[in-house]
Design goal:
Number of strands: 18
Distance between the termini: 18 Å
CATH class: Alpha Beta
Strand content: 5-15%
Strand order of the largest sheet: 1-4-5-6-7-9-15-16
Shape: globular
Number of domains: 1
Protein name: 6-phospho-beta-glucosidase
Keywords: Glycosidase, Hydrolase
GO molecular function: beta-glucosidase activity
CATH topology: TIM Barrel
Radius of gyration: 21 Å
Pfam families: Glyco_hydro_1
Family: Belongs to the glycosyl hydrolase 1 family.
CATH architecture: Alpha-Beta Barrel
Helix content: 25-40%
CATH superfamily: Glycosidases
């Protein structure tokens, strides 16, 4: 195996999906706090007011807020070198536009980072992981309003100063390319109401500026900070070798995968998006100095989520099967198997993706989300035999190793939902990713007790051998 000795093995979570404690210690409402469970395999429903009789799965999450010591101890037992987590914006600034932070919120993360340090685990902090305070969406229109740039910069600066000696690795926004899709208008950008492509791209521009400003300020506060970007990378293949399919795939890849990375790594808008804007009558307003801000605020490393791949066709016929996915579906690839939620499993595609990204950007890469959502069965003796999850991870890690052999500078791997948590898309608990089982069902019932799955001991062995021993038994 070729993983470097200092390779960062770990796991990933998000505050809105695991913390719970949604209204305690001064925390304000976030957009996810307004999302009711949507039912089996269905997307959640946003309600303007939080209904007393409604079930909002994020309100309790998995109660990480009160169980963080227990959870971090379990991560340490697996041997984590890094723990990716996010900070709930509305826990620090309840409405998002305050000038002074909520001390109780800051103190909570002090305790979390101190607990990580106790076990020599590096925190990898996502500043905003779909955590926009609801008041910013309601009162300002989210990032469609340029004022929100300053609110985010104030939030990020507060974190940088408070935790400058506790956190080294930062990410500005989670899956920022989500903003290129209609569904991203609400969850990422904070635009309530009907989708408007003009507003969406203007809001995404404001987010680019906010990120770049934060990167520059962060480096001034602590030059040792490593600050990265994070994208949902949806690897796409042409459905056939027909030239029209190849061109359709290339066009979608540039818009969905390359655009946001090009801006955050290269510090400028690429030609193909300028052309797209011109053809679609989209006018992204730049203020004086914006181009310089983007150039001065480029990221140190590139991180991404990788769950699946899909195929793209210039025209989709009635016989073409559609598949689901993270943010974006596509046409079924007959050579791939599919998860219970319709996501195509493609380990070899991860090697392809790593090589594509490193060839384009030539900066360190980290896979900060990867995993299999599945229904787990608890046996009579309490054991959980998730060989399917072990097989998924084994095959992906094998391809990661090959990419490192190819010369890719891969510095870390944090599988998604290292502990079971609330599904971001549907609010389900039955769609489980973790090495650690949490006793909670889709209606919010359960003890919230933690237990180890078979994959827990397997991943512990993988980390202990730096990826050399991937055997299932």
């Amino acid at each position: 195996m070729t993983f470097p000795k200092n390779f960062l093995w770990g796991g990933a979570t998000a505050a809105n999906q695991c913390e719970g404690a949604w209204d305690v210690d001064g925390k304000g409402e976030s957009i996810p706090d307004h999302m009711r469970a949507g039912g089996l395999h269905k997307r959640r429903v946003m309600t303007p007011m939080i209904e007393p009789d409604g079930y909002y799965p994020n309100h309790d999450g998995i109660d990480f807020y009160h169980r963080y010591k227990e959870d971090i101890a379990l991560f340490a037992e697996m041997g984590f070198k890094v723990f990716r987590l996010s900070i709930a914006w509305s826990r620090i600034f309840p409405k998002g536009d305050e000038t002074e932070p909520n001390e109780a919120g800051l103190a909570f993360y002090d305790k979390v980072f101190d607990e990580c340090k106790k076990y020599n685990i590096e925190p990898l902090v996502t500043i905003s992981h779909f955590e926009l305070p609801y008041a910013l969406a309601e009162n300002y229109g989210g990032f469609a309003n340029r004022k929100t740039i300053d609110f985010f910069v104030n939030f990020a600066t507060t974190l940088f100063k408070r935790y400058k000696d506790k956190v080294k690795y930062w990410l500005t926004f989670n899956e920022i390319n989500f903003g290129t899709l209609p569904m991203g208008g609400r969850n990422l950008l904070g635009i309530l109401g009907e989708d408007d492509e003009q507003r969406r791209y203007q809001a995404l521009h404001h987010m680019f500026i906010a990120s770049a400003k934060a990167v520059k300020i962060g480096h001034e506060i602590n030059p040792d900070f490593q600050i990265g970007c994070m994208l949902a990378y949806i690897t796409m293949y042409p459905l056939t070798c027909k030239p029209e399919d190849v061109l359709a795939s290339q066009e979608l890849v540039k818009k969905l995968n390359w655009f946001c990375g090009d801006v955050q790594v290269k510090g400028k808008y690429p030609y193909y998006m300028k052309n797209y804007f011109a053809k679609h009558g989209i006018q992204v307003d730049f203020e004086a100095g914006d181009e310089e801000i983007l150039q001065e605020g480029t990221v140190d490393y590139y991180t991404f989520s990788y769950y699946m791949t899909s195929c793209v066709a210039a025209t989709i016929g009635e016989s073409d099967d559609r598949v689901g996915g993270n943010l974006f579906g596509g046409v079924k690839n007959e050579y791939l198997e599919t998860s219970e939620w319709g996501w195509q499993i493609d380990p070899v595609g991860l090697r392809f993706t790593l090589n594509e990204l490193y060839d384009r950007y030539e900066i360190p890469l980290m896979i900060v989300e990867n995993g299999l959502g599945a229904v787990d069965k608890v046996e009579a003796d309490g054991s959980i035999h998730d060989d399917y999850r072990i097989d998924y991870f084994r095959r992906h890690i094998e391809e990661m190793d090959k990419a490192v052999e190819d010369g890719v500078d891969l510095i870390g791997y944090t599988p998604w939902g290292c502990i079971d948590l609330v599904s971001g898309g549907t609010g389900e608990m039955s769609k489980r990713y973790g090495f650690i089982y949490v006793d909670k069902d889709d209606e919010g019932n359960g003890t919230f007790n933690r237990s180890k799955k078979d994959s827990f001991e397997w991943y512990k062995k993988v980390i202990a051998t730096n990826g050399a021993d991937l055997a299932s038994k």
